[in-house]
């Protein structure tokens, strides 16, 4: 964004960068129902990959899962499932996604 400041003697042009350093990789607005306890603007699709994959696979709609599969690789999703605990999943969600991605969580609970 270009801002021009007028002074008595000259016109000074200053470039202002809005949100400099903020990530542009955020979740689309239709994801809000699946992240009810989070602010979508605070979630970055790269920094919060594990959280996003778990939330969408546990609670997401078909559109959300389609978005997820377009955004992350099959290997990314498989690693999240494998490196998680069974207690972090809904029973039916875990059964489905374990079959789809041919993997299971490596732990029973989060604290082991």
Q: What report would you give on this structure?
A:
A two-stranded antiparallel ribbon has the order 1-2. The protein has 4 helices and 2 strands, in the order ββαααα. It is globular, with a radius of gyration of 21 Å. β1 and β2 form a beta hairpin. It starts with a strand and ends in an 11-residue tail after the last helix. By secondary structure, the protein is mainly alpha-helical. The N terminus is likely disordered. The chain has one domain.
What structural category do the secondary elements indicate?
A: mainly alpha
- Count the strands? 2
Radius of gyration of CA atoms, rounded to a whole number = 21 Å
What's the main sheet like? 2 strands, antiparallel
Q: Could you give the distance between the termini?
A: 51 Å
Summed up, the domain count is 1
Query: What share of the residues does DSSP label as strand, in percent?
Result: 5-15%
Tally of contiguous helical segments = 4
Could you report the average pLDDT, rounded to the nearest whole number? 83
From N to C, what is the helix and strand string? EEHHHH
Q: Spans of 5+ residues with little confidence (pLDDT < 50)? A: 1-6, 12-23
Strand order within the widest sheet?
1-2
What's a quick, concise take on this entry?
By secondary structure, the protein is mainly α.
Write out key terms for the chains shown.
112 residues; mainly alpha; two-stranded antiparallel sheet; 4 helices; 2 strands; 9% strand; disordered N terminus
Protein topology:
Layout: E1 2-6, E2 11-15, H1 49-59, H2 62-71, H3 74-82, H4 91-101
Antiparallel strand pairs: 1-2
């Amino acid at each position: 964004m270009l801002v021009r400041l007028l002074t008595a003697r000259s016109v000074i042009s200053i470039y202002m960068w809005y949100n400099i350093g903020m990530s542009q990789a955020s979740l689309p607005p239709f994801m809000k129902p699946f992240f009810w306890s989070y602010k979508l603007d605070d979630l970055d699709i790269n920094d919060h990959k594990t959280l996003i994959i778990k939330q969408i696979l546990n609670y997401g709609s078909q559109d959300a899962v389609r978005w997820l599969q377009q955004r992350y690789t099959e290997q990314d999703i498989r690693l999240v499932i494998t490196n998680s605990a069974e207690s972090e999943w809904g029973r039916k969600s875990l059964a489905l996604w374990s079959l789809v991605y041919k993997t299971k969580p490596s732990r029973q609970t989060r604290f082991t």
